[in-house]
Amino acid sequence: MTAQSKHGRMATMLKLAASMVIMVAALSAGPAKTAAQGAIDGGASWRGWIAHGKSDDPGVYGSGSASNPYRVYSKVFSYCNQNALPGLVGGGGRPRAFRGFSNGDRVLAIGIQMLGGESVSGGRTWKLDLGNDSYRPASSVGASDGRTSSEQDAHDGDYSVQNSTGFVADQLVVFAPFVNISTGGGNPYGDERPFASFRRADSYQFFVNLTKVPVWAAASVASGYGVGADPIPPFGDRITMALNGYGDNHVVITRSTAPDQESLCRQAYLPLTAKAAACFRPSSRTGDVALVIDTSSSMAGGKIEAAVAAATEFVGLMDLPRHHVAVIGFNTQATIAQGLTGDRAAVVEAIAGLRLSSGTRIDRALEATRQELAGPRARPSADRHVVFLTDGRSDDGAEARSIALAQAMRAEGTTIFAIGLGDDVNKDFLLALTGAADRVHLATGIEDLRRIYGAVADSIPCPH
Question: Whole-model pTM?
Answer without folding.
Answer: 0.51
